[in-house]
Amino acid sequence: MSVPPAFTDIAKPSNDLITKDFFHTAAASLEVKSKAPNGVSFNVKGKSTHEGSTGGAIEAKYADAPSGTYFNCLQFITYPQFDRSSHVHYQILLRPGHATLLMFYRRTGLTLTQAWTTVNALDTKVELDNQLAKGLKAELLTQFLPSSQAKGAKLNLYFKQPNFQARAFFDLLKGPTANIDAVLGHEGFLVGAEAGYDVQKAAITRYSAAVGYSVPEYSAAITATNNLSVFSASYYHKVNSQVEAGAKATWDSHGSNNAKINDRGIAAAAYSVLLRPGVTLGLGASFDTQNLNEAAHKVGASFTFEA
């Protein structure tokens, strides 16, 4: 029994095929990834938009893998005065004529990610995966802007079990608010729901639902978002290892409708090539087929370096 996708990923195969790796959305983008010998991963990203704005971020990530030893006998756990953040396990073994004191240090599997962006924002994420309970992952995200002294704090919870996945996102300083979703899966069939709740107002702020069917070769999904007022139907088919096809249509009950095969005559194309191991080049363009003589077209390029 496998874990179903998250609520936002029920229509992911078709959404990725239609929207991902179309490089014309930005004039230029650059991403450099590297990993230090001590296990710290670095990621430097930059992007320039067609409107002229430029943004970037530098990110460092360190994962402290779980380790330690447990005994299948009586033991007691204490938190020493010199380091309350670590779990130190003591065990006393008593035998005739002597006593033995054993001590073990257990690393909790914590992952720390810190980023500094060009808008002078300091972002920190602390992750604890599969430690509080089996299948449960907890994330604490904080943000600090020194220029305005603005602060942000969010708590995210992910719970995965066979045929079930649930997520909860809490904004601790704004509201506070909560967004919760859950998905049930059985033999390829998926059904999910999402709801938002404002604690201060004691009111549901939004709700959505989705159903789908997914197998390795193809998938289909119908989603109803924005309080069940916007409906989308999507289909994805993997013809072979080199050919994929997909389509998506959206209907808004308030009167507007659109499709990814753009009804305004906008055509987009993208090309991605691995120049050499660790270096990827992406090129993209969009054309207004109804105004070919006007400057309404967009082109973009992306470089990704990974070491």
Written description of the protein model:
The protein is mostly beta strands and 307 residues long. 3% of the residues lie in helices and 60% in strands. The chain has one helix and 21 strands. It has an 18-stranded mixed beta sheet, with helices on one face. A hairpin with a 2-residue loop joins β12 and β13 (189-198). The radius of gyration is 25 Å and the shape is globular. The two termini are 36 Å apart.
Order of helices and strands: HEEEEEEEEEEEEEEEEEEEEE
**Helix vs. strand class:** mainly beta
The whole-angstrom Rg is 25 Å
Quickly count the helices: 1
Describe the biggest sheet? 18 strands, mixed
Dominant shape: globular
* Total beta strands: 21
Mean pLDDT: 79
**Terminal-residue CA separation:** 36 Å
As residue ranges, the low-confidence spans are 69-86, 255-263
Q: How much of the residues is beta strand, in percent? A: over 45%
How much helicity do the residues have?
under 10%
List the main descriptive attributes of the protein structure presented here:
21 strands, 18-stranded mixed beta sheet, mainly beta, 307 residues, 3% helix, globular, 3-stranded antiparallel beta sheet
